[in-house]
Every structure is written in structure tokens, then in C-alpha cells.
Design a protein that fits this description.
The complex is a heterodimer.
Chain A (H helix, E strand, L loop, with lengths): L3 E5 H11 L4 E4 L7 H8 L4 E3 L3 H13 L4 E6 H6 L1 H10 L5 E7 L13 H7 L3 E2 L4 H18 L3 E6 H5 L1 E5 L16 H4 L3 H23 L4 E4 L5 E5 L2 H9 L4 E5 L1 E3 L3 H9 L3 E5 L5 H8 L18 H9 L22 H10 L3 E3 L24 H12 L2 H4 L2 E6 H17 L6 E7 L28 H8 L3 E5 L5 H13 L3 E7 L6 H11 L1
Chain B lengths: L4 E8 L4 H14 L3 E6 L9 E9 L12 E6 L5 H4 L3 E8 L15 H10 L6 H11 L5 H13 L3
Parallel strand pairs in B: 1-4, 4-5
Antiparallel strand pairs in B: 1-3, 2-3
Helix pairs in contact in B: 1-4, 3-5
Classes of the chains: A alpha/beta, B alpha/beta.
Chain lengths: 527, 158
């Protein structure tokens, strides 16, 4: 078997998880994390898509309470959804290994914000590993599970777009661990976070972090490259690679376990060079932590907080060059595919003059010409509830123009809560929610979801029916229509529902043209 | 070769930019080089501009080609040439659809292997080393077409 190969960071994480006997992988698709579970499944691992990231983490926590190893994957904004379980499981921990992959997107290649999830490690008190290439993705994944079990705490594996999607040489170990059989030992003082037990657990957590810091000082996770003593650079994650090119003469310190930081090692490194600069993408988190420890280091100028770093930007950062950066020539922006079923829906909403509360998915592209038919977009599931808020405040004539537009996967993610809100706190003018159901999670690469009738590996699964869900919640009118086959009928239906005071859900159902051929081949195999 | 060589491949979503860069990276990896490949997935799938980068040499650090330091720039779509030109270093090699026999392109989906053929002339690697990887990365029914287009690209425009 060939152990040396080119692999992306996402592939390396999946291979690491397979090598160390992960019982279950759970996640919700999101660029740049989406490929991890697909690869883990193809390697023979048990992997499943959850309806959302909170659900995914909780399933993973259960598996780890039962002494299994679970890998949870999501993009950075997904951890906002999963933050509730994260902060408490940090206190109690689990006997089985629990590793959460947070795939951040500095520069927003495909995201609505560029939040820096390293803040979550600090806020929740969760140790964090930051790989800088595929080899480290593989090695750190395996080590993350060991640390999680040794210290009985979840571990955050924080990666970024360039680490996830860049391919480089990976050398796999001769390691193939069979997932262990689960068992449950009753231990309410550790596992039930009532205040009396949580007070103890919080103190334990802080003691664990102190032990982890001591372990980190031993150097296992840190690379110290000794060059000249004029310039020393402390860099984490992908920034480390850029610095190697931008300043080959500099001594380099790269912590891999970046929370809690090895501050005494950093102190020695800083003292060994005449000038010490911290190079990190996003927020100046490492810089602030080092300075708070009383170690004098230079940080970066504010302009480098925004976007990805690269070799050129690191050169400028180190040279203190603050002249404005010239943006690269604009390429062709992404657009809704020709033949995309969302096109007819947006043409109608544009022509009807609707105020459109939008959501996260391909259909957010309806904001661009020729449609220009999306008016707000915040986060997964927000279309329904933001639309309801508008209806509560706008004068009647304006309120009647408000529609919420949400995709099928996004609806099942966090849209259902909004329908409950709509039925419970119904606006005087009612409301209209349009579910653009293209029967796939299109934006992130055509993953399955609970409404497609297929599991992550495309084998058959029970199908959750969106129309039955909304009927069950108590929506007045539920219609299913194809706006491409019947554009006039769709327009008429939307107008009619907008003019009533009813609560309405219109499901526009037509498969994504990119998914169509694949779906047919899966259905053929599943017969 | 001590210095890292930088290659950028650009085009539009759906043209096979990412596939052909995967093939290129694998060929160079098997030739014994350190190789890194970088690209951005996601919204670019929807017909927008796509570019992918390969760096190879004795030891490669950053997976991203520094701005203006591409030794080779392959652009598969005429409208994307000017958008990407700033990536090419002074004296670097630009390969466009003008450098391949477009009149003999029998299927637009194989333009990527034709362009790869044009690039392949610049490296001292056997034709076989390219064809082996092309066949491994593409389904069998596409082998004949892509081998032909690669060879046409390697011969160059008339």
C-alpha cells in the first residue's frame, strides 16, 4: 500500500480519523469543510449529515459519552449554531474522544463573514490545534483524539480555506484502528451539568488547561526554526508557510497547539531575536495573548486583519508597508447557472416588487443582476424570522410585499423554528414563505440532506417531507409548484397569498440541474 | 532545480481547471518534486472565474503562487486573459487558446487536456508520464478523446 501521496487538508483529516478508529463522523456541509465526511465515508468510516451543526455536535457528544470517538465537521459560522453544546461540553468532557473541526474562511471565498473561530477556543476553554498543511492535518487529527481522551475535553481542530483545499505531500502512517465498542458508565457528577456539579467542572477545566499549557511547553507541537537573530517571526497555521517564502532569513516559531499557547517557549524565542513579529491571519489573537504575558512583540497593521494573507502581503506586513493595496482585476462573478430552477422564481419576485428576506445558499445569488431580488441575508434560517420581524413593523401595504425565501437544506437546518414563530406570533397581514426546493445542498457541492431521501453515502434513507412538517406546525396554506414549468401559475399563486392575511408556505420544487444526473444514478443504484 | 516553479491555470467554472491542475500536480509529484496545489472552491462553481495554482521544486512552502510570480500562466478562456495577466512574472510563459489547434478540438470539455499538452512541452518529462496520470484521473470512456487532445496540444498550433 502506498503511504505517500498528494492530499488536501480535508482528505488528510478524514484519513487521520480513519487511522485512529473514529466511530462516527457527523457534520453539516459548509465550504471549506464539506469534503471531510465524504472522504471519511468513502474510506469506510461511518459518516452522516445532520440537519444542522448543533444537532451534529450533540450526536457526537452522545457517541463520545458512550466511549466512542466522534469527529464533528462544520464551517466557521456553523460553530455559532453549535456554540450552546460546545460551552458546556467543555466543562464536562466525554470519556471518548471528541474532536470538532472548525473550517474558517478568511477572505470569505464562500461565506457571509470572516469571523475568527480561534476566539471560540479561548471563550469556551477548549484546546485548539492549528495545522499548517496536509501532513499536520493528518497528524494533528490523530493527536487531537488522544488529547481529548487524556484530558477528557473536546478538542478544536481549527483549519482555514487554504489548509482545507490545498494539496501537498502526505505520508500516512501504518495505522488502522478498529473503532471500539461503545459502553456507558454512569457518572452523573461528571456528565450532568447542574450548577453544583458544573461549579466543580469549571474548576477542573481550568486545571486541565493549565496542564495542557505545561505539556505544550515540552515542544511536541511547536516548530522552532533557527536562522539569524535579526528577525524572528511567530506564525500560526497557513501563515507559517507564507513566512517561509517571504522571509527565508528569519528565525521562525510555529506553535501547533495554539490554545493554550506555550508562552514560556515564546518568551525564550522572542528574547533570542532582535526584532520579533507575530504573523497571523484574522484577528490579532496570538499577538494579544503574547503581549498580555508581558512579552514584547510587534503585531500587524490593522489592514492585515482583513482577508487572507499570502506571500506578498506577509512581505509588506514585515516591511511595515502601509501603502494601499491594489485589488486584483475583477473576474467574472459567480451567477445562478443557466437552467437553474431558481431563475424563474426570482424573475417573478422581482416583477411583483416583493421585499425579499433571503437566506444562505446558491439562491443568495438572486441579489445580483439580472434579478436583484434579494433584500436581506443574515445567516442560516434567518429568512423566515427576519421577514416576520419586517411584517410586524411595516405599514400594511408594505408588509404585504414581504416574502421569505429559503432553500430546502437551509429550511431543514434552522428554518423550521421560523415556521413555529410564524404560526405562534402571526403578523396581522399573515406571511408568505417560499421554499426553493432543488432537492440537494447545492452551494456546498450537492450533498444529501434529510429531505432528499438519501443518506450521506447516497443510499436510501427515510425522507422528511417539508410539506408535512409545515402542515403539522399549523400553516394555513401549503402549496407545491414548479415555477419553471408554470411561471404564470407561480406568479398568480404568490400574488394571491400575499393579498390574504393567511400564513402560507409555497414549496417550489424542481431539482438542481447540476444534481439531476447524479440523483438519477443514485436512484438507479438504490432500486 | 532549487528554485520553486509556479504555474497558474485559469478559466471559467465548468472548464475543468481544477481537474487538469490535479493531473498536473500528480505528474510532478510522481516525477519526484515537492508539490503544492491551491485553489478556492465554493461560489466559483457557478460559472464564475476560476483559477488554480501549482508550485513545485525541491521544497515548497506556501501553497499559493506569490502575486506576479507565475512562471507559466495557462488561460483557457479568452475573456480571462487580461484578468489574470498580472499573475505572470516578467518573461514568464503565457499559454492561451491561441497556442493550441482549436480547430481540431472535437469536444470543448477536453480543452483542458489540450492546454495541458501545450504546457507539457516546457518540461523534460516523458509523454508517457503525462498520459498515465490523465488515464488514471479520467473515466475510461474519455481516454481516447483526451489522449488525442493532449497530443494535439503538445504539437502546438499550426
Amino acid at each position: 500500500m502506498n503511504h505517500r501521496m498528494l492530499a488536501s487538508g480535508n482528505e488528510a483529516i478524514a484519513m487521520g480519523a480513519k487511522a485512529c478508529g473514529v466511530n462516527i463522523g457527523v457534520g453539516y456541509p459548509g465550504t471549506p469543510s464539506s469534503e471531510i465526511l465524504d472522504v471519511f465515508s468513502r474510506l469506510g468510516g461511518v459518516a452522516q449529515w445532520a440537519p444542522n451543526e448543533k444537532t451534529a455536535l450533540e450526536v457526537g457528544i452522545g457517541a463520545a459519552f458512550a466511549n466512542g470517538r466522534s469527529l464533528i465537521t462544520m464551517k466557521h459560522v456553523g460553530l455559532n449554531v453549535a456554540a450552546d453544546p460546545l460551552f458546556t461540553i467543555a466543562y464536562s468532557g466525554t470519556p471518548g474522544g471528541l474532536v470538532i473541526v472548525s473550517a474558517d474562511d478568511p477572505g470569505m471565498a464562500s461565506s457571509q463573514n470572516e469571523q475568527d473561530n480561534r476566539r471560540y477556543a479561548v471563550a469556551a476553554g477548549v484546546p485548539m490545534l492549528e495545522p499548517a498543511d496536509s501532513q499536520e492535518c493528518y497528524d494533528f487529527t490523530i493527536r487531537a483524539f488522544e488529547l481529548s481522551e487524556q484530558f477528557r475535553c473536546p478538542v478544536l481542530l481549527r483549519v482555514t480555506t487554504r489548509v482545507c483545499h490545498s494539496k501537498c505531500i502526505l505520508e500516512k502512517r501504518d495505522l488502522e484502528t478498529t473503532p471500539r465498542t461503545g459502553k456507558f458508565d454512569r457518572d452523573p457528577k461528571s456528565n450532568v451539568m447542574i450548577p453544583a456539579y458544573a461549579r466543580i467542572a469549571h474548576r477542573k477545566l481550568r486545571a486541565k488547561l493549565h496542564e495542557l499549557e505545561e505539556l505544550n511547553e515540552k515542544g511536541e507541537f511547536t516548530r522552532w526554526i533557527r536562522k539569524g537573530d535579526e528577525l524572528g517571526v511567530i506564525a500560526t497555521g497557513i501563515s507559517f508557510q507564507h513566512v517561509r517564502d517571504a522571509a527565508p532569513e528569519a528565525s521562525l516559531l510555529k506553535p501547533g497547539l495554539t490554545y493554550p499557547l506555550p508562552l514560556e517557549t515564546i518568551r525564550r524565542f522572542a528574547a533570542s531575536v532582535k526584532r520579533c513579529v507575530v504573523v497571523e491571519e484574522g484577528d490579532p489573537i496570538v499577538t494579544e495573548a503574547i503581549r498580555a504575558a508581558g512579552i514584547p512583540v510587534e503585531g500587524k497593521a490593522e489592514m492585515f486583519r482583513f482577508g487572507e494573507l499570502n506571500v506578498n502581503r506577509v512581505r509588506r506586513l514585515l516591511a511595515g508597508d502601509l501603502t494601499p493595496e491594489t485589488p486584483p482585476p475583477a473576474g467574472k462573478p459567480p451567477q445562478l447557472c443557466l437552467g437553474c430552477p431558481h431563475r424563474k422564481s426570482y424573475e417573478a419576485l422581482r416583477d411583483l416588487g416583493c421585499i425579499v428576506s433571503g437566506d444562505i445558499g446558491c439562491y443568495t445569488l438572486g441579489v445580483l443582476p439580472p434579478f436583484e431580488a434579494v433584500d436581506t441575508c443574515v445567516c442560516m434560517g434567518a429568512s423566515v424570522t427576519v421577514g416576520l420581524g419586517m411584517r410586524k413593523v411595516l405599514p400594511e401595504a408594505e408588509a404585504r410585499r414581504v416574502v421569505s425565501v429559503i432553500g430546502d437544506s437551509t429550511f431543514l437546518h434552522t428554518g423550521i423554528n421560523g415556521i413555529v414563530e410564524m404560526v405562534y406570533n402571526r403578523p396581522a397581514t399573515g406571511h408568505v414563505v417560499i421554499v426553493l426546493d432543488n432537492s440537494t445542498t447545492a452551494m456546498t457541492g450537492l450533498q444529501e440532506h434529510p429531505g432528499t431521501g438519501r443518506k450521506l453515502d447516497h443510499t436510501p434513507a427515510p425522507r422528511v417531507s417539508i410539506e408535512e412538517v409545515v402542515r403539522g406546525i399549523g400553516v394555513d396554506n401549503v402549496d407545491v409548484i414548479d415555477s419553471t414549468a408554470d411561471p404564470a401559475g407561480f406568479r398568480e399563486l404568490v400574488s394571491r397569498r400575499l393579498s390574504s392575511n393567511d400564513t402560507s408556505v409555497i414549496i417550489v420544487r424542481r431539482p438542481c440541474i447540476l444534481a439531476l444526473a447524479k440523483a438519477k444514478s443514485y436512484e438507479g443504484k438504490n432500486k | 532545480m532549487e528554485k520553486t516553479t509556479n504555474i497558474t491555470v485559469a478559466g471559467l467554472g465548468g472548464q475543468g481547471v481544477l481537474t487538469v491542475t490535479d493531473i498536473l500536480a500528480e505528474v510532478l509529484f510522481r516525477a519526484g518534486y515537492d508539490v503544492k496545489k491551491s485553489e478556492v472552491h465554493g461560489m466559483s462553481q457557478r460559472g464564475g472565474s476560476v483559477s488554480s495554482e501549482v508550485r513545485f521544486g525541491k521544497e515548497v512552502a506556501s501553497p499559493m503562487v506569490p502575486e506576479g510570480e507565475s512562471d507559466f500562466l495557462i488561460v483557457m478562456e479568452p475573456t480571462q486573459v487580461e484578468v489574470n495577466r498580472h499573475k505572470l512574472r516578467a518573461g514568464g510563459v503565457l499559454i492561451t487558446t491561441d497556442d493550441v489547434p482549436m480547430e481540431r478540438l472535437s469536444n470543448p470539455k477536453a480543452l483542458n487536456t489540450m492546454m495541458l499538452g501545450a504546457l507539457s512541452k516546457h518540461f523534460e518529462l516523458s509523454e508517457e508520464s503525462w498520459l498515465t496520470v490523465i488515464k488514471e484521473f479520467l473515466p475510461e470512456k474519455l481516454h481516447a478523446l483526451n489522449v488525442e487532445m493532449f497530443e494535439l496540444g503538445r504539437q502546438g498550433a499550426r
